[in-house]
Amino acid sequence: MANDNVDLAISAGEIHALLGENGAGKSTLMKMIYGVTKPDAGKIIWQGEQVTIKDPSMARNMGIGMVFQHFSLFETLTVTENIALALGDDAGDLKQLAQRISTVSKQYGMELNPDRHIHSLSVGERQRVEIVRCLVQDIKLLILDEPTSVLTPQEVDTLFVTLRQLSKDGCSILFISHKLKEVQALCHSATILRAGKVTGECIPAEAGATKMALMMVGDDTPISTDYPKSSGTEVFLNVKGLSQTSDDPFGVTLKDLNFHVKSGEILGIAGVAGNGQEELLAALSGEHLVASANQVSFAATKVGLLDPRARRELGMAFVPEERLGRGAVPEMSLVDNGLLTGFMQGLVHLGFINKAKTEQFANKIIDQYKVKTPNNRASADSLSGGNLQKFIIGREILQNPKLLVASHPTWGVDIGAATAIHKALIELRDRGAAILVVSEDIDELFLISDRLCAICDGEISPDKPTPDTSIEEVGRWMSGVFDESASQSPSQDNSTKLSAELI
Amino acid sequence: MIKLEPRGEASITMSYVSPVLAGILTLITGGIFFASLGHDPLYALSIFLLAPVSDLYGVAELSVKAAPIMLCAVGLALTFKAQVWNIGAEGQLLMGGLTASAVALLLIDVESGWALVPVLLSGMVGGALWGLLAAWLRNRFNANEILTTIMFNYIALYILLYFVHGSLKDPDGYGFPESALFSDSTLLPILLEDTRMHIGILFASFAVVAAWVFISRSFLGFQIKVLGMDSNAAKLSGFKHKRLVILVMLISGALAGLAGASEVTGPIGQLIPSISPGYGYAAIIVAFLGRLHPVGIFFASLLMALIYMGGELAQIELKVPLAVTSLFQGMLLFYLLACDVFINFKIKMAAPKARQSVESA
Lengths: 503, 361
Prior knowledge:
The complex is a heterodimer. By secondary structure, chain A is α/β, with parallel strands linked by helices. Chain A contains 16 helices and 21 strands. Chain A has helices at 26-33, 56-62, 79-87, 94-107, 123-135, 153-168, 180-186, 209-217, 277-285, 308-313, 334-342, 355-368, 385-397, 415-430, 442-448, 471-478, and strands at 15-19, 44-46, 49-51, 64-67, 141-145, 172-177, 189-194, 197-202, 235-244, 254-262, 266-270, 296-298, 301-302, 316-319, 348-349, 352-353, 403-407, 434-438, 451-456, 459-460, 464-465. The longest helix of chain A has 16 residues, at 153-168. Chain B is 67% helix and 3% strand. Chain B is an all-alpha fold. Chain B has helices spanning 12-36, 41-49, 56-81, 89-106, 116-141, 145-164, 200-217, 219-229, 231-236, 241-268, 279-289, 294-317, 324-344, and strands at residues 2-6, 345-349. The longest helix of chain B is centred in the last third of the chain and has 28 residues, at 241-268. The A-B interface holds A 35-36, 54-57, 72, 285-287, 307-312, 318, 320, 322, 325-332, 336, 339-341, 343, 348, 351-353, 355 and B 217-220, 222, 225-226, 229-230, 232-233, 235-240, 354, 356-357, 359-360.
């Protein structure tokens, strides 16, 4: 059951947090409020009257707006055109609408040029388009689904300023998140969900982060604290002067990237999605060959022109961002998905698959990494995101790689699985592997990385050992300010300050 | 109001029920069609589907027709699994028939039974090279293989006609566009006396088993499946996309080429302008009807062969045009595609409702 007897009350002008892990039922609840799905039982009371919200257009007419986690914008259209499309018949004259868009966006401190095309906007700006779309209508309740997951720390601050002003003007906000610090900084009250049930309500500013975390995950899930840092030994992955022009019109051009990863250390690359991570990762995996062999090397071997298979033979393992549809074949069983990259572990004999060994390999991954699955015949797409990710990471680690490249390793994964994945990465590091982690989750990078840098618009920042840097500095790197002499500017808003320790 | 609703998960039962349902719907529509022409539908259908195999000779003929379809369909299924849409089995079959004929005519004076081996092998090579051409165009120029293979079918036909009207024409044939009859040493052995049942059906059956083992047990077969299901995963795992495309096109072409070679050295015994009544196209339907699975293809080929024979018999007994064969083939494919919708969707009866918002999707 996605939602079981949930009570939720939001008053006018209140910023209310809906906290919970992935799969806790947050999405289902908000979809019911927005009229996408219908509740089996219970009532929705809106401004004192019981209502049945039939569909999203009815919700919009009532004054409920929603910003989804995944934007539904057309890249080749302008801001105004996109908003006009979403409004349908209410859009009216495009010129007037453009006028309204600039007024509204200025009023709430979200600068937005109505005539720009979506593909030229950053992710943060795209989110503004989605929010402004809700605001140009007469809005009473704004629902935001994990709005900060795509933003730099600085962009998060700006968003919070907007949201506070909205709340002051009497608009209620339902803020869905699993990031406790943000909830503490922004929200007036919070409802915590676990497995479809309300497990607590609190005032985030007063309740401690640990208390809220326990309500979210339950008492039995271990919550990790700290890992000792390591400095590594020899350089294994070396990227020298990597430049590459993207063939894709909306792709990112890589500009003279230089960095290295030593055996026995974890290098974290922070950055907001779409700043060249995909292009960099494809150049590292061999899916996209670079211009010359020496731009990428593994130890002494130049691999820039080698295909993924040859790089795997040299000890590379790779955990892609897309679990289904790159990391694993959705319709195939776990046994087959083990074979997918594990084929060099003696699973193939004279061109034929050794069924027994292949099963053993899959079972070993399932046992060692505690993958929750009915059996090894279950298809990859029947597993939850966290379980599939544990399987994929286990599959790569069990091949004893010398270099592991992991992209967003815990994206969309519950805290229990994320902790298990972090532990596995640290163990692999301690066995002497070089690990490169690319992630949008800055807290995660501070937790596991030994050194940190950031990527912005295809350029990479200088790197620093994790203890010597700060969220603010990495945030500046993420927005493209690489100037090392820049003094630590005091955070403008203390309440939104994020610190390096994770819950 | 009737609504189609996504199942969320593909129904495995439905994927097996669908071909059966398509067969039943084809029979019903065929019955209506015969009735509208003034024939008793049950009698007409029995002429069409039962009479052809009512005796041993009929069964033998069934194997003669089924063998080339099966060979082509097994190869096609392999390419379809890799998401390579080879529509060119017909052309590959014709090229196989042509090269095999050329070699058979070269060896017309050889009496050793071994002469058959180079004949059949050359047929396979001819078909494989014809398939390779399309694979190369796809790999090198990103040319859509659906278009190139269809066009190659016509090119193959005209090359065959060129030779059958030219250098391969029998000098003592009174100018008919036919080659000389092949010598007995290059003809396929007959399996059942007094029938035309030749060892081509054994080749086809062997191909079915070999394809089954290949796709389910070999690592190359696994790579082909991954390529078809998820090309990004294949790429990341280091499977060589282009080589796999070449491999499936070579295998598929070779099998179609063998089908062509078996036709000219089997029931026909010489090179003539029309060596295939569209076996290569029928094989596309068969591959899908058999769910791209070798065993399914085995039975679907027999059904398709039956439709060919039924069409001929209906022409004689019911005085309907031979086009009835294409009609039944077309209906079968049409109904199969329609029924396949229910693998991923289910029917829901719902009261008429207010329009759904786009966003709710």
